Amino acid sequence: MSTRVEQFIEGRRVAGDADGAIHENVNPATGERLAEVSLDAVASAEAAVQSARDAFPAWAATPVGERCQAMFAYKQLLEDHFEELASMIVTEHGKTKAEANGDVRRGIDCVEFACAAPSLMMGRSLPQIAVSSSFCRTEDEGGVGIDSAVDRVPLGVCVGITPFNFPIMVPLWMWPMAVACGNTFVLKPSEKVSMCAVREVELACEAGFPPGVLNLVTGGPKVVDHLITHDDVKAVSFVGSSRVAKHVYQTGSAAGKRVQCMGGAKNFMIIMPDANRDAVIDGVIGSAFGNTGQRCLAGSVAIAVGDAAEWFVPAVTEAARGLKVAAGDEAGVQMGPLIDEASRERVLGYIGTGADEGATVVLDGRDAELPATGCFVGPTILDHVRPGMRVAEDEIFGPVLSIMREDTLDAALATMNRSPYGNMAVLFTESGYHARRFQTNAGAGMLGINVGVPAPMAVFPFSGWKDSFFGTLHANGDDAVRFYTEYRVTVSRWM
Ligand code: NAD
Questions:
Q1: Which CATH number fits the domain that encloses residue 317?
Q2: Which pLDDT belongs to residue 136?
Q3: 320 and 409, same structural domain?
Q4: In the chain, at which end, N or C, are there fewer CB atoms within 10 A of the end residue's CB?
Q5: pTM surpassing 0.70?
């Protein structure tokens, strides 16, 4: 029998709830059983919130520079354990080693950004905003000066709920900035990659964050619902599918929490006839098939404008056919497996649906030469996809690229902007005019111009639109500082 993934409460690993449903974590490339994850660990969630609540007053009162010393130490520990963490991602998630390295590196960027909390948390002040003469008249009888200042203060216990597809990075979008700002935190990672998350949190405690400042509880919907409605929780950050994002946003908001929810996506890439062809193929292949299509920033639909399809379709098909699909730690691998068997079934189902709806399957991942074990699907390209087809509208979250055709950039933009999602959009062109028109009219929060994956950077807010985001303040950048702090304005006069 495989071991149970532990909870991390009060600065140490604890066994947690023994009862309730479990999720079996399996290496998606080999089928090897890795560990069991408790899904219904509500008692552990309660203990984690209490631990975070009790730790909050002392942590909030710790000078921010001191809090950041632990963050600096943590950044170094992540560097020291880089290989270990990346290898855990390959085993538990199935990413290629290069993709796993990117997951850890982009996460470390967020820790570095959080190290700047002393500057980022600074308030503002304005002396002498008024003069009061109503009560006493000193200062040469002209009246007493009134000063005003705004501080940023921590909220209390914050909760983070994360998806499977970036096991190390997405939790690091949340808790380092929350904790650097003086909050305490409970992380509920995806049950599918909980082992990576436990190690990430354990290293933080080695770095010197006091017990209770950062806790982790595994679980599924019951645990999430307990956390997001808990009286002692002040703020909730969520990343995952739009269906769950909406549920967490509505439930958390109704319970009076500050909530930010990053959701799912259906991302379009527009290919203009004048685009640099090598840049297009490189960018589209990386966007559609990188991380096996399991990115919220995966390019899922390419719209070829004018006669671009004539060169684009054969070139992208040839490049996709040449991708080496294998276990993430194999030499030369370019695409790994999907996260689990259910995902493989879903993606295979979408390929069938596309064909049934009238798309041309120019590259069929069902027929690809694939490893004998594991949740693999080969790169797939569906051509002549039209608006209204499910493969044009649903988030497939797998290595399937749909190709549409439009006569003009404006028609392509109109097709793209009909999507209820708005996470990212990409344009390939050599024309500044077209680039500017795209930048002004694309209905998505992250835009790439000749860049296949306009990835979030720690210093900028990461902004999906429409059904890809529920809330006001986004992840990362100054939005994260704003999200994890409250303004306190003091108006003072001294007689
Ligand atoms: P998911 O929505 O299934 O799960 C996300 C989290 O919610 C997990 O921790 C899970 O345990 C929990 N959860 C699942 N069902 C729940 C329910 N009914 N009630 C309460 N909690 C529940 O997402 P996933 O499959 O892990 O991740 C893939 C999705 O995440 C994709 O849709 C992808 O686009 C999205 N994503 C978005 C971003 C972004 O920044 N916009 C980033 C990464 C992933």
A1: 3.40.309.10
A2: 62
A3: yes
A4: N
A5: yes
Q: Which tens digit of pLDDT belongs to each residue from 197-220?
A: 999 999 999 999 999 999 999 999
CA–centroid distance, 295 to ligand 1, in Å, is: 11
- CB 207 near ligand 1, within 6 Å: no
Strand order across the 7-9 sheet: 12-14, 7-9, 214-216, 184-188, 157-161, 233-239, 258-262, 469-470
What pLDDT shows up at residue 482?
98
Distance of alpha carbon 444 from alpha carbon 267, whole angstroms: 9
Asked if 158 is an active-site residue, the reply is no
224 and 306 inside one domain? no
Does residue 397 have its Cβ closer than 6 Å to ligand 1?
yes
CA 429 – CA 29 distance, rounded (Å):
37
The closest alpha carbon to 491, from 129, 139, 138, 154, belongs to 129
Report how far ligand 1's centroid is from the alpha carbon of 244 (Å): 6
Distance, CA of 65 to CA of 115 (rounded, Å) = 9
Residue whose CA lies nearest to ligand 1 atom number 18: 221
Q: 295 lies in a domain?
A: yes
Q: What percentage of the chain exceeds 70 in pLDDT?
A: 98
Does the Cβ of 464 fall within 6 Å of ligand 1? yes
**Residue 305 neighbours by CB under 8 Å, 6+ apart:** 270, 271, 272, 273, 405, 406, 407, 408, 409, 411, 412
| 65/171 same-domain check | yes
Q: Is 269 helix (H, G, I), strand (E, B) or coil?
A: strand
Is the same domain home to 66 and 202?
yes
Residue 461 lies in a domain: no
Give the residue, out of 223, 241, 457, with the most ligand 1 atoms within 8 A of its beta carbon, to mutate for a pocket test.
Answer: 241
Residues 290 and 177 in one domain: no
C-alpha of residue 4 to centroid of ligand 1, in Å = 22
Average pLDDT, the chain: 96
**From the CA of 316, how far away is ligand 1's center (Å)?**
30
The total number of structural domains in the chain stands at 2
Neighbours of 135 (CB within 10 A): 9
**391 belongs to a structural domain:** yes
The whole domain housing 310 covers: 267-449
Ligand 1: does its nearest atom lie under 6 Å from the Cβ of 244? yes
pLDDT at 17: 82
* Chain segment 297-330, per-residue pLDDT in tens: 999 999 999 999 999 999 999 999 999 999 999 9
Is 315 in the same domain as 361? Answer: yes
Which atom of ligand 1 is nearest to 166's Cα?
43
Single out the catalytic residue among 68, 181, 196, 296: 296
